[in-house]
Amino acid sequence: MLSAKSLFQEILDNDDSFRLFCSIAAGGEAQGGWENGRIAALVPQSERALAPKISRHGADEDKHGRIFNALMKKRGLRPVAVPPETDYTMLLERRGIGLAHDRLRRDEPLTVQDLIVYLSHSRVTEQRAADQMVVLRKHFADHPEVGRAVRVICGDEDNHLAYTHEELLRFAAAGHGRLIQRTLRACALAEARVYRDVSLAVTAHMGRILGWPKVKSALLAAGIHAVYAYERLLGWRRMVTLSMPERRDPLGGPVTPAPEFA
User: Fold this and answer.
1) What is the rounded distance in angstroms from the CA atom of residue 222 to the CA atom of residue 237?
2) What is the pLDDT of residues 107-130, one digit of tens each?
3) In 3D, which of 98, 80, 81 has the Cα closest to residue 89?
4) Tens digit of pLDDT for each residue in 4-42?
5) What is the pLDDT of residue 262?
6) H or E segment to which residue 193 belongs
7) pTM of the predicted model, to two decimals?
8) N or C terminus: which one in the chain shows less Cβ crowding within 10 Å?
């Protein structure tokens, strides 16, 4: 049966596939930590109150990277090089989504428009991350090896998503609504394509490691294409809507220390 639970269980049960999964995840989280750290350092004076929240976001991403590395260490595994075609964050940047790395490396203050680009990119990608973690929490929250990691990361992703809603709504109230909607739509459509491409690449790698039959791989690929077709037609709208979160100021508190998994 091709279910999210059975597929992830296969990946979890095999050291090579688990190592690749954790390496891809750790690399993406580390990249997100660096990006948020640079953005926090470059926040313009008029928006300095936002800097600690961006720093908290980056610290959470760094924490997640350490968690994935610790999960590998617990099994005696070492990270592997991330195949370029599975590098979600790199592929998003190549498509012009979010703030370019060469911009972040310059010591020039960002503009309000830059912050809107950053928050719109985060709103879309954090929705994706939160949705994925909901699935993992449903099936693996009590798993003896990864359950604690799943619960911690899931809670953080919910906070990150709520924070992007809250801040974008604040900027919309200040008169930037049209820019936000245009940017969100562009991000959502580009992200859907990158997510499809990365999903196909990850599936191909996992299929080779786990020896999946061609029929199984073909069915999974067809499912990925079907999801993309839906997102391209209608599903992107869910990625661009904004609503005030129930929990206000979700990133306003202190950084939560990374639990010790190794």
Assistant:
1) 22
2) 999 999 999 999 999 999 999 999
3) 98
4) 899 999 999 999 999 999 999 999 999 999 999 999 999
5) 41
6) helix 177-210
7) 0.93
8) N
- Provide the CB-side half-sphere exposure for 69 (13 A, CA): 14
Cα 254 to the center of its chain, rounded Å: 21
Tens-digit pLDDT profile for residues 209-229: 999 999 999 999 999 999 999
Number of helices (H), then strands (E), belonging to the chain: the values are 10, 0
Of 148, 141, 172, give the one whose Cα is nearest residue 242. 172
Q: Which residues contact 257 (CB under 8 A, 6 or more apart)?
A: 63
Residues 166, 244 contacting (CB under 8 angstroms): yes
Distance CA 124, CA 135 (A): 17
Show the tokens assigned to 225. 């294409």
Contacts of 33 (CB under 8 A, 6+ apart): 58, 59, 61, 62, 65
164 within 8 A of 78, measured Cβ to Cβ: no
Span 60-71, average pLDDT:
96
Query: Structure tokens of 108?
Result: 């020039």
Residue 78 has pLDDT above 80, yes or no: yes
CA 22, chain centre distance (Å): 13
